[in-house]
Specification:
single chain; mainly alpha; Arc Repressor Mutant, subunit A; four-stranded mixed beta sheet; 22 helices; globular; helicase; Replicative DNA helicase loader DnaB; DnaB/C_C; hydrolase; WHD_DnaB
Length: 471
């Protein structure tokens, strides 16, 4: 949770080293906002406009002020801030002064449109986020310019020394110490560096040294380790989910006849390998598992409840949905539901797993969009952040549901047509129905029995599915 790291009373110093222009606003709104969402976009705009109003391009405030100006709770600000960091719009530093942390927020300019569309990661994720080739083409067309071919034209541009003359010696004699001091000043000035707009990759996401160890001796290591090529390798490994050994094979193929790394050839090889494994499924941008600050487990799991919580926290929702579907490929519409639960309803991945498990059990193994969003809206209003909170609320909802069923009534989001008079009872997960299971560690015999029951249940579902297909 945010309170472990940041408090409303903590001060922050926001600053930037560039001047805002119209193009920045267009790129942020049209290109960055679909990726980071409206809240992160609003946070960046709030910080940058506050800084821009200051002559020194620097401002000091408390996070309480930021909460007031954005209308957001601090936990929301904290989670949205991380998106700005990840995409390269913000760098965060801190120091401890008199027992409290002071944060430094260095705001970076967005990439220009050319850099964004030429970026291997951002362009692909924008395309998939928009979900339409026409929309993507329309955006790209908006930022495109028509170049004029000057190859056959005569260049009559005047050179600097053709227009200006050098300083006359008499002018040099009028130089004063103040003038020399001003001309030689090294104080920082507003301006942009090419690296200002770059997002970074955490080194623990891809083991670069292990990747290097897989390369054969004929590959020049210096060519691979230069900054530009390293960044490309990190990008492709992230986007196409490549392991160090797989990336080493791609590098070999791309450098088979040359000592220079052909970036375009490496991209082609990476796409080809990805398509062989994933068919036509495009790479997607999204949170994979429960963020560290929202995890409940501090150590190894001791009880069955701990193990279930750990499982929900360390499994991506799409992977969990595959398991619920007996390993079948997840339907595109279901993936869209999961993404909306995470990005629109702001549910953490672990909480989404609990929600999926609950819906599958109460809705005859069907993932209903309306039901998912109805429950998600309720959980969001209840400020459910952790797996433990979600499981606790799901138990209460299930108890209410059973009470409604016994009385012949049901919650509004679970009502069916009047023709469905019979109430169908679905088997529920043990974490929802058994209050004793979390108190002590299960024995080996109990675990073995549970595995057999689970296998038996999966077989029953498989037979039902087969019967439906045959009928």
């Amino acid at each position: 949770m945010h309170w472990k790291e940041i408090l409303p009373s903590n001060r922050y110093i926001a600053y930037m080293s560039y001047n805002w222009n119209t193009s920045d606003h267009e790129v942020l709104t049209l290109l960055y906002q679909p990726l980071i969402g409206s809240l992160a976009y609003s946070l960046y705009m709030t910080l940058s406009l506050d800084v821009q109003r200051q002559p020194s391009k620097k401002v000091e405030r408390t996070h309480k002020t930021l909460m007031t100006s954005t209308g957001q709770h601090l936990d929301h600000i904290f989670s949205e801030r991380k998106k700005l960091e990840a995409i390269g719009l913000l760098s965060v530093y801190r120091e401890k002064i008199e027992g409290e942390f002071v944060y430094y927020y260095h705001l970076h300019p967005p990439m220009d449109a050319s850099g964004f569309f030429n970026d291997d990661l951002l362009s692909v994720f924008l395309y998939n986020k928009l979900g339409s080739k026409e929309q993507y083409r329309e955006l790209r067309q908006y930022f495109s310019v028509e170049e004029v071919n000057t190859g056959d034209l005569e260049n009559v541009t005047q050179g600097f020394n053709q227009v200006f003359t050098s300083i006359h010696p008499s002018e040099m004699r009028s130089t004063t110490p103040d003038m020399l001091e001003m001309l030689s000043s090294s104080s920082p000035l507003a301006g942009r560096k090419a690296s200002d707009s770059h997002y970074n990759f955490a080194e623990d996401g891809f083991d670069f040294q292990q990747f290097i160890s897989y390369l054969p001796s004929f590959i020049p290591k210096a060519e691979i380790e230069n900054t530009k090529n390293q960044r490309l390798i990190y990008q492709l490994a992230f986007m196409y989910k490549l392991k160090p050994e797989e990336m080493a094979h791609l590098i070999q193929d791309a450098m088979l006849h040359s000592e220079k790394l052909d970036a375009d050839q490496l991209r082609i090889q990476a796409k080809r390998r990805y398509r062989m494994n994933e068919q036509d499924e495009p790479p997607r941008l999204g949170l994979r598992i429960q963020p560290e600050e929202l995890k409940s487990q501090a150590g190894p799991p001791q009880t069955q409840e701990d193990k279930t919580i750990q499982y929900f926290e360390t499994t991506a929702p799409i992977e969990y949905l595959e398991e619920l579907s007996d390993g079948a490929r997840v339907y595109e519409g279901d993936i869209d539901i999961i993404e909306r639960l995470i990005f629109e309803y702001k549910l953490s991945p672990g909480v989404v797993n609990v929600l999926l498990d609950y819906i599958f059990m109460v809705n005859d193994k069907k993932l209903s969009k309306a039901l998912a969003f109805k429950i998600a809206g309720h959980w969001k209003r209840k400020k459910i952040k952790t797996v433990k909170e979600a499981m606790s609320l799901a138990k209460k909802e299930n108890q209410k549901r059973q009470t409604f069923q016994e009385k012949g009534d049901r919650p509004s989001y679970q009502k069916k047509s009047s023709s469905s008079a019979q109430v169908r009872k679905e088997p529920l997960p043990k974490w929802m129905t058994d209050n004793n299971w979390k108190k002590e560690e299960a024995s080996e015999q109990e675990l073995e029995k549970a595995k057999k029951e689970a296998a038996k249940y999966r077989e029953m579902l498989r037979k039902k599915k087969q019967q439906k297909e045959e009928s």
